[in-house]
Amino acid sequence: MSTVAVTDETFDAEVKNSTVPVVVDFWAEWCGPCKQIGPALEELAAEYGDKVKIAKVDVDSNPNAAAAMGVRGIPALFIFKDGQVVSNRAGAAPKAALQSWIDESI
């Protein structure tokens, strides 16, 4: 499975109503740290397969979802489980750190 692009309109359906845990990455095209973690998130999406969904929300195109989550800086990462935020973190991190954060949270 690859990452899923989520919009303001699809946020509830893709994230809050998901039957599997969801990692949400709030990012923007102009954000250097966002681009750094992008490939790691793609790899993790493939490795987790159907067990975890990794969603990406472009904050420039979808400001409402970011505002609703109180995102003030990017990249901002949230893990949702059963429709609720169970963990969040900000900033770039290596793939191994992201993976252990996801594993601890789900």
From TrEMBL:
Active site residues of this protein: 31 (nucleophile), 34 (nucleophile)
Site annotation Contributes to redox potential value: residues: 32-33
Site for Deprotonates C-terminal active site Cys, residues: 25
One Gene Ontology molecular-function label: protein-disulfide reductase activity
Keyword Protein biosynthesis among record annotations: no
Domain (Thioredoxin): residue spans on this chain: 1-106
Keywords tagged on the record: Disulfide bond, Electron transport, Redox-active center, Transport
A cellular component term, taken from the record's GO annotations: cytoplasm
Domain of life assignment: Bacteria
PROSITE patterns the record matches: THIOREDOXIN_1, THIOREDOXIN_2
Keyword field contains Transcription regulation: no
Disulfide bond residue pairs: 31-34
A Pfam family assignment: Thioredoxin
Protein family membership: Belongs to the thioredoxin family.
Name recorded for this polypeptide: Thioredoxin
Taxonomic source organism: Tritonibacter multivorans
Gene field: trxA_2
